[in-house]
Design a protein that fits this description.
- The chain is an all-alpha fold.
- It has a single domain, classed as Up-down Bundle (Growth Hormone, Chain: A), CATH 1.20.1250.
- It is about 80% helix and about 0% strand.
- It is built from 15 helices and no strands.
Length: about 400
Protein backbone atom coordinates (compact mmCIF):
# COMPACT_ATOMS: atom_id res chain seq x y z
CA UNK A 1 0.00 0.00 0.00
CA UNK A 2 1.07 3.60 -0.59
CA UNK A 3 0.73 4.44 3.09
CA UNK A 4 1.04 2.77 6.42
CA UNK A 5 0.42 3.93 9.94
CA UNK A 6 3.63 5.51 11.00
CA UNK A 7 3.49 5.23 14.78
CA UNK A 8 6.90 6.37 15.93
CA UNK A 9 8.22 6.14 12.42
CA UNK A 10 11.59 7.63 13.25
CA UNK A 11 12.38 4.15 14.59
CA UNK A 12 10.76 2.30 11.70
CA UNK A 13 12.20 4.06 8.65
CA UNK A 14 15.31 2.36 7.37
CA UNK A 15 18.27 4.52 6.45
CA UNK A 16 18.03 5.98 2.96
CA UNK A 17 14.25 5.59 2.69
CA UNK A 18 11.69 8.33 3.07
CA UNK A 19 8.66 7.57 5.28
CA UNK A 20 5.34 6.98 3.54
CA UNK A 21 3.80 9.76 5.63
CA UNK A 22 6.33 12.27 4.28
CA UNK A 23 5.40 11.20 0.75
CA UNK A 24 1.70 11.49 1.56
CA UNK A 25 2.18 14.99 2.96
CA UNK A 26 4.24 15.81 -0.13
CA UNK A 27 1.40 14.66 -2.37
CA UNK A 28 -1.08 16.87 -0.52
CA UNK A 29 1.31 19.81 -0.80
CA UNK A 30 1.87 19.10 -4.49
CA UNK A 31 -1.86 19.28 -5.27
CA UNK A 32 -2.45 22.24 -2.95
CA UNK A 33 0.44 24.16 -4.46
CA UNK A 34 -0.96 23.71 -7.95
CA UNK A 35 -4.01 25.51 -6.62
CA UNK A 36 -2.23 28.22 -4.62
CA UNK A 37 0.44 28.95 -7.26
CA UNK A 38 -2.25 29.40 -9.89
CA UNK A 39 -3.42 32.37 -7.82
CA UNK A 40 0.06 33.53 -6.80
CA UNK A 41 1.21 33.54 -10.42
CA UNK A 42 -1.53 35.90 -11.60
CA UNK A 43 -2.14 37.94 -8.44
CA UNK A 44 0.62 40.56 -8.92
CA UNK A 45 -0.40 41.37 -12.47
CA UNK A 46 -4.10 41.19 -11.51
CA UNK A 47 -3.64 43.73 -8.72
CA UNK A 48 -1.15 46.08 -10.40
CA UNK A 49 -2.20 46.00 -14.06
CA UNK A 50 -5.91 45.15 -13.82
CA UNK A 51 -6.84 46.94 -10.58
CA UNK A 52 -4.10 49.61 -10.96
CA UNK A 53 -2.77 49.43 -7.39
CA UNK A 54 0.34 51.53 -6.69
CA UNK A 55 3.62 49.80 -5.69
CA UNK A 56 3.14 50.98 -2.10
CA UNK A 57 -0.40 49.55 -1.86
CA UNK A 58 0.71 46.37 -3.61
CA UNK A 59 3.52 46.05 -1.06
CA UNK A 60 0.95 46.10 1.75
CA UNK A 61 -1.23 43.51 0.00
CA UNK A 62 1.76 41.32 -0.84
CA UNK A 63 2.99 41.50 2.74
CA UNK A 64 -0.51 40.62 3.89
CA UNK A 65 -0.50 37.61 1.57
CA UNK A 66 2.47 36.08 3.39
CA UNK A 67 2.64 37.81 6.76
CA UNK A 68 -1.01 38.10 7.76
CA UNK A 69 -2.60 36.13 10.60
CA UNK A 70 0.75 35.53 12.27
CA UNK A 71 -1.03 35.06 15.59
CA UNK A 72 -3.08 32.22 14.11
CA UNK A 73 0.14 30.39 13.24
CA UNK A 74 0.88 30.31 16.94
CA UNK A 75 -2.69 29.35 17.82
CA UNK A 76 -2.69 26.53 15.26
CA UNK A 77 0.68 25.22 16.41
CA UNK A 78 -0.29 25.35 20.08
CA UNK A 79 -3.67 23.66 19.52
CA UNK A 80 -2.05 20.89 17.47
CA UNK A 81 0.32 20.13 20.35
CA UNK A 82 -2.37 20.56 22.99
CA UNK A 83 -4.83 18.07 21.48
CA UNK A 84 -2.17 15.90 19.77
CA UNK A 85 -4.11 16.11 16.50
CA UNK A 86 -1.78 17.77 14.05
CA UNK A 87 -3.56 16.34 11.01
CA UNK A 88 -6.92 17.79 12.12
CA UNK A 89 -5.55 21.31 12.58
CA UNK A 90 -3.71 21.10 9.27
CA UNK A 91 -6.88 19.87 7.54
CA UNK A 92 -8.87 22.84 8.82
CA UNK A 93 -6.20 25.14 7.43
CA UNK A 94 -6.23 23.47 4.03
CA UNK A 95 -10.04 23.72 3.88
CA UNK A 96 -10.10 27.44 4.75
CA UNK A 97 -7.53 28.21 2.04
CA UNK A 98 -9.56 26.22 -0.50
CA UNK A 99 -12.74 28.18 0.24
CA UNK A 100 -10.82 31.48 0.01
CA UNK A 101 -10.25 30.84 -3.71
CA UNK A 102 -13.98 31.27 -4.28
CA UNK A 103 -13.85 34.40 -2.16
CA UNK A 104 -11.57 36.03 -4.73
CA UNK A 105 -14.34 35.63 -7.30
CA UNK A 106 -16.87 37.26 -4.97
CA UNK A 107 -14.48 40.10 -4.04
CA UNK A 108 -14.47 41.56 -7.56
CA UNK A 109 -12.43 44.76 -7.88
CA UNK A 110 -12.76 45.81 -4.23
CA UNK A 111 -9.29 46.16 -2.70
CA UNK A 112 -10.77 45.87 0.80
CA UNK A 113 -12.63 42.66 -0.03
CA UNK A 114 -9.55 41.22 -1.73
CA UNK A 115 -7.53 42.02 1.40
CA UNK A 116 -10.12 40.22 3.55
CA UNK A 117 -10.07 37.14 1.30
CA UNK A 118 -6.28 37.08 1.27
CA UNK A 119 -6.34 37.25 5.07
CA UNK A 120 -8.67 34.22 5.13
CA UNK A 121 -6.39 32.34 2.73
CA UNK A 122 -3.34 33.11 4.84
CA UNK A 123 -5.29 32.12 7.96
CA UNK A 124 -5.58 28.67 6.43
CA UNK A 125 -1.89 28.59 5.57
CA UNK A 126 -1.00 29.80 9.04
CA UNK A 127 -2.99 26.99 10.62
CA UNK A 128 -1.67 24.20 8.43
CA UNK A 129 2.03 24.91 7.92
CA UNK A 130 3.42 24.25 11.40
CA UNK A 131 1.38 21.05 12.03
CA UNK A 132 2.42 19.73 8.61
CA UNK A 133 6.10 20.46 9.20
CA UNK A 134 5.88 19.00 12.70
CA UNK A 135 4.47 15.78 11.21
CA UNK A 136 7.47 15.64 8.88
CA UNK A 137 9.91 16.01 11.78
CA UNK A 138 8.08 13.20 13.59
CA UNK A 139 8.08 10.92 10.53
CA UNK A 140 11.84 10.77 9.90
CA UNK A 141 15.03 10.24 11.95
CA UNK A 142 16.79 13.44 12.98
CA UNK A 143 19.82 12.72 10.80
CA UNK A 144 17.53 12.47 7.76
CA UNK A 145 15.40 15.56 8.38
CA UNK A 146 17.15 17.58 5.67
CA UNK A 147 16.44 14.86 3.13
CA UNK A 148 12.84 14.42 4.33
CA UNK A 149 12.15 18.14 4.07
CA UNK A 150 13.98 18.24 0.74
CA UNK A 151 11.78 15.49 -0.72
CA UNK A 152 8.65 17.15 0.66
CA UNK A 153 9.66 20.55 -0.68
CA UNK A 154 10.56 19.01 -4.05
CA UNK A 155 7.05 17.55 -4.30
CA UNK A 156 5.64 20.86 -3.09
CA UNK A 157 7.61 22.71 -5.75
CA UNK A 158 6.44 20.26 -8.41
CA UNK A 159 2.96 21.55 -7.69
CA UNK A 160 4.27 25.11 -7.64
CA UNK A 161 5.86 24.41 -11.04
CA UNK A 162 2.61 23.06 -12.48
CA UNK A 163 0.34 25.73 -10.96
CA UNK A 164 1.41 28.67 -13.15
CA UNK A 165 1.25 26.40 -16.22
CA UNK A 166 -2.34 25.48 -15.35
CA UNK A 167 -3.09 29.19 -14.85
CA UNK A 168 -1.49 29.93 -18.21
CA UNK A 169 -3.64 27.24 -19.82
CA UNK A 170 -6.80 28.66 -18.27
CA UNK A 171 -5.91 32.19 -19.42
CA UNK A 172 -5.20 30.89 -22.93
CA UNK A 173 -8.48 28.95 -23.00
CA UNK A 174 -10.64 31.80 -21.72
CA UNK A 175 -8.58 34.61 -23.26
CA UNK A 176 -6.11 36.65 -21.21
CA UNK A 177 -7.91 39.88 -22.08
CA UNK A 178 -11.34 38.53 -21.09
CA UNK A 179 -12.98 40.00 -18.00
CA UNK A 180 -13.74 36.45 -16.86
CA UNK A 181 -10.17 35.17 -17.25
CA UNK A 182 -9.07 35.72 -13.66
CA UNK A 183 -12.36 34.38 -12.25
CA UNK A 184 -11.82 31.20 -14.26
CA UNK A 185 -8.36 30.84 -12.72
CA UNK A 186 -9.77 31.29 -9.21
CA UNK A 187 -12.59 28.74 -9.67
CA UNK A 188 -10.23 26.15 -11.15
CA UNK A 189 -7.88 26.78 -8.24
CA UNK A 190 -10.69 26.03 -5.76
CA UNK A 191 -11.51 22.70 -7.42
CA UNK A 192 -7.89 21.56 -7.24
CA UNK A 193 -7.55 22.70 -3.61
CA UNK A 194 -10.60 20.62 -2.70
CA UNK A 195 -8.84 17.53 -4.10
CA UNK A 196 -5.87 18.29 -1.85
CA UNK A 197 -8.12 18.34 1.23
CA UNK A 198 -9.58 14.96 0.22
CA UNK A 199 -6.09 13.46 -0.18
CA UNK A 200 -5.14 14.67 3.29
CA UNK A 201 -8.20 13.04 4.82
CA UNK A 202 -7.68 9.73 3.04
CA UNK A 203 -3.92 9.18 3.11
CA UNK A 204 -2.06 11.23 5.73
CA UNK A 205 -1.58 9.52 9.09
CA UNK A 206 -1.38 11.57 12.26
CA UNK A 207 1.44 11.13 14.75
CA UNK A 208 -0.92 10.25 17.57
CA UNK A 209 0.45 10.26 21.10
CA UNK A 210 -1.32 10.24 24.46
CA UNK A 211 -2.67 13.58 25.56
CA UNK A 212 0.23 15.46 27.16
CA UNK A 213 0.43 15.55 30.92
CA UNK A 214 -0.96 18.62 32.63
CA UNK A 215 1.47 21.51 32.26
CA UNK A 216 3.50 19.86 29.49
CA UNK A 217 1.66 21.85 26.82
CA UNK A 218 0.45 25.13 28.28
CA UNK A 219 0.88 28.82 27.53
CA UNK A 220 3.55 28.92 30.25
CA UNK A 221 5.40 25.95 28.75
CA UNK A 222 5.17 27.49 25.28
CA UNK A 223 6.54 30.81 26.56
CA UNK A 224 9.32 28.88 28.29
CA UNK A 225 10.61 27.82 24.87
CA UNK A 226 12.16 31.25 24.59
CA UNK A 227 14.31 30.50 27.64
CA UNK A 228 16.19 28.01 25.48
CA UNK A 229 19.13 29.81 23.86
CA UNK A 230 19.02 27.74 20.59
CA UNK A 231 15.28 28.40 20.14
CA UNK A 232 15.71 32.08 20.90
CA UNK A 233 18.58 32.37 18.44
CA UNK A 234 16.58 30.57 15.74
CA UNK A 235 13.64 32.92 16.25
CA UNK A 236 15.82 36.04 16.00
CA UNK A 237 17.57 34.66 12.91
CA UNK A 238 14.23 33.88 11.26
CA UNK A 239 13.09 37.46 11.86
CA UNK A 240 16.34 38.86 10.47
CA UNK A 241 16.13 36.67 7.36
CA UNK A 242 12.46 37.54 6.85
CA UNK A 243 13.34 41.24 6.89
CA UNK A 244 15.80 40.65 4.02
CA UNK A 245 13.15 39.09 1.73
CA UNK A 246 11.08 41.36 -0.50
CA UNK A 247 8.80 38.68 -1.96
CA UNK A 248 8.11 36.85 -5.20
CA UNK A 249 5.63 39.36 -6.56
CA UNK A 250 8.14 42.20 -6.58
CA UNK A 251 10.83 40.06 -8.24
CA UNK A 252 8.43 39.02 -11.00
CA UNK A 253 6.99 42.51 -11.48
CA UNK A 254 10.49 43.96 -11.83
CA UNK A 255 11.39 41.35 -14.45
CA UNK A 256 8.07 41.91 -16.24
CA UNK A 257 8.55 45.67 -16.44
CA UNK A 258 12.18 45.37 -17.46
CA UNK A 259 11.59 42.88 -20.27
CA UNK A 260 8.04 44.02 -21.18
CA UNK A 261 6.62 40.52 -20.66
CA UNK A 262 2.98 40.20 -21.72
CA UNK A 263 0.15 39.42 -19.30
CA UNK A 264 -0.45 35.96 -20.77
CA UNK A 265 3.21 34.98 -20.25
CA UNK A 266 3.62 36.45 -16.78
CA UNK A 267 2.88 33.13 -14.95
CA UNK A 268 5.93 31.57 -16.64
CA UNK A 269 8.20 33.60 -14.36
CA UNK A 270 6.96 31.56 -11.40
CA UNK A 271 7.41 28.39 -13.47
CA UNK A 272 11.11 29.17 -13.92
CA UNK A 273 11.63 29.68 -10.19
CA UNK A 274 9.73 26.54 -9.27
CA UNK A 275 11.60 24.44 -11.82
CA UNK A 276 14.90 25.35 -10.18
CA UNK A 277 13.35 24.73 -6.75
CA UNK A 278 12.04 21.33 -7.90
CA UNK A 279 15.42 20.21 -9.24
CA UNK A 280 17.48 21.45 -6.26
CA UNK A 281 15.30 20.91 -3.16
CA UNK A 282 16.09 17.23 -2.50
CA UNK A 283 19.83 17.40 -3.35
CA UNK A 284 20.34 20.49 -1.18
CA UNK A 285 18.39 18.86 1.66
CA UNK A 286 20.69 15.83 1.52
CA UNK A 287 23.70 18.14 1.28
CA UNK A 288 22.53 19.96 4.40
CA UNK A 289 22.32 16.68 6.33
CA UNK A 290 25.85 15.78 5.32
CA UNK A 291 27.76 19.05 5.54
CA UNK A 292 25.62 21.24 7.80
CA UNK A 293 22.27 22.97 7.49
CA UNK A 294 23.43 26.48 8.37
CA UNK A 295 25.98 26.74 5.51
CA UNK A 296 23.30 25.68 3.02
CA UNK A 297 20.83 28.27 4.36
CA UNK A 298 23.44 31.04 4.20
CA UNK A 299 24.43 30.09 0.64
CA UNK A 300 20.75 30.28 -0.27
CA UNK A 301 20.57 33.85 0.96
CA UNK A 302 23.78 34.54 -0.93
CA UNK A 303 21.92 33.54 -4.10
CA UNK A 304 19.16 35.98 -3.13
CA UNK A 305 21.72 38.80 -2.85
CA UNK A 306 22.87 38.08 -6.41
CA UNK A 307 19.25 38.20 -7.64
CA UNK A 308 18.77 41.61 -6.04
CA UNK A 309 22.00 42.93 -7.56
CA UNK A 310 21.01 41.65 -11.01
CA UNK A 311 17.66 43.42 -10.76
CA UNK A 312 19.40 46.62 -9.67
CA UNK A 313 22.05 46.48 -12.42
CA UNK A 314 22.14 47.38 -16.10
CA UNK A 315 21.99 43.84 -17.53
CA UNK A 316 18.85 42.99 -19.52
CA UNK A 317 17.52 40.39 -21.94
CA UNK A 318 16.69 36.72 -21.58
CA UNK A 319 19.99 35.85 -19.80
CA UNK A 320 18.93 38.14 -16.94
CA UNK A 321 15.55 36.39 -16.70
CA UNK A 322 16.99 32.86 -16.81
CA UNK A 323 19.80 33.49 -14.31
CA UNK A 324 17.56 35.45 -11.93
CA UNK A 325 14.86 32.79 -11.85
CA UNK A 326 17.39 29.95 -11.48
CA UNK A 327 19.08 31.67 -8.53
CA UNK A 328 15.73 32.57 -7.00
CA UNK A 329 14.67 28.93 -7.13
CA UNK A 330 18.02 27.90 -5.62
CA UNK A 331 17.41 30.38 -2.80
CA UNK A 332 14.12 28.70 -1.91
CA UNK A 333 15.53 25.19 -2.25
CA UNK A 334 18.38 26.01 0.15
CA UNK A 335 16.32 27.79 2.79
CA UNK A 336 12.66 26.81 3.00
CA UNK A 337 12.79 23.24 4.31
CA UNK A 338 16.39 23.38 5.53
CA UNK A 339 15.60 26.07 8.10
CA UNK A 340 12.81 23.86 9.52
CA UNK A 341 15.19 20.88 9.54
CA UNK A 342 17.61 23.05 11.52
CA UNK A 343 14.85 23.91 14.00
CA UNK A 344 13.37 20.41 14.49
CA UNK A 345 16.07 18.81 16.68
CA UNK A 346 16.25 21.72 19.14
CA UNK A 347 12.50 21.66 19.89
CA UNK A 348 10.94 19.23 22.39
CA UNK A 349 8.54 16.75 20.78
CA UNK A 350 5.60 17.81 22.97
CA UNK A 351 5.98 21.41 21.77
CA UNK A 352 7.40 20.70 18.31
CA UNK A 353 4.49 22.27 16.41
CA UNK A 354 4.31 25.27 18.73
CA UNK A 355 8.04 25.91 18.34
CA UNK A 356 7.95 25.63 14.56
CA UNK A 357 4.94 27.96 14.38
CA UNK A 358 6.78 30.47 16.61
CA UNK A 359 9.75 30.55 14.24
CA UNK A 360 7.53 30.73 11.14
CA UNK A 361 5.49 33.52 12.72
CA UNK A 362 8.56 35.60 13.39
CA UNK A 363 9.69 35.19 9.80
CA UNK A 364 6.20 36.00 8.46
CA UNK A 365 5.84 39.19 10.50
CA UNK A 366 9.29 40.33 9.40
CA UNK A 367 8.38 39.58 5.79
CA UNK A 368 5.23 41.70 6.10
CA UNK A 369 7.30 44.66 7.29
CA UNK A 370 9.90 44.11 4.58
CA UNK A 371 7.36 43.92 1.77
CA UNK A 372 5.53 47.04 2.90
CA UNK A 373 8.76 49.01 3.25
CA UNK A 374 10.08 47.86 -0.13
CA UNK A 375 6.85 48.86 -1.87
CA UNK A 376 7.13 52.33 -0.33
CA UNK A 377 10.82 52.56 -1.25
CA UNK A 378 10.09 51.58 -4.86
CA UNK A 379 7.46 54.30 -5.13
CA UNK A 380 9.67 56.99 -3.55
CA UNK A 381 13.23 56.08 -4.69
CA UNK A 382 12.66 54.02 -7.81
CA UNK A 383 13.76 50.50 -8.65
CA UNK A 384 17.57 50.77 -8.71
CA UNK A 385 18.18 52.36 -5.29
CA UNK A 386 15.51 50.18 -3.66
CA UNK A 387 17.07 46.95 -4.94
CA UNK A 388 20.54 48.10 -3.85
CA UNK A 389 19.25 48.69 -0.31
CA UNK A 390 17.53 45.26 -0.37
CA UNK A 391 20.82 43.60 -1.40
CA UNK A 392 22.68 45.35 1.41
CA UNK A 393 20.03 44.25 3.92
CA UNK A 394 20.35 40.64 2.73
CA UNK A 395 24.15 40.70 3.16
CA UNK A 396 23.74 42.09 6.68
CA UNK A 397 21.16 39.36 7.42
CA UNK A 398 23.65 36.66 6.36
CA UNK A 399 26.32 38.03 8.71
CA UNK A 400 23.92 38.35 11.65
CA UNK A 401 22.45 34.87 11.09
CA UNK A 402 25.89 33.30 10.98
CA UNK A 403 26.76 34.96 14.28
CA UNK A 404 23.51 33.77 15.87
CA UNK A 405 23.41 30.17 14.64
CA UNK A 406 27.03 29.03 14.21
CA UNK A 407 26.89 27.28 17.60
CA UNK A 408 23.37 25.83 17.21
CA UNK A 409 23.43 22.09 16.53
Amino acid sequence: MYLSTIGRSEHKVSRGKIAANVLALGTVSLVTDISSEMVTAVLPIYLVLSLHLSPAIYGLVDGLYTGATALLRLVGGYLADRVSRRKTIAGIGYAISALAKLGLVAAGASAGAIGAVITADRTGKGLRTAPRDALITLSAPQDMLGRAFGVHRAMDSAGAFAGPLVALGVLALVGASSTDAFDAVFVTSFCIAAIGVLLLILFVRDHRTPRPATGTVSPRAAAALLKSAPVRRLLIAACVLGTATIGDGFVYLLLQRREDIGTGWFPLLAVGTNLAYLVLAAPLGALADRFGRLPVVLCGYGALVVVYLLLAGPVSGWPLVVVSLALYGAFYAATDGVLMALAGPVLPEALRTTGISLIQTGQAVAYFVSSALFGLAWQVWGIGPSMAVAAGAAVLAIVVTFGLLRKVR
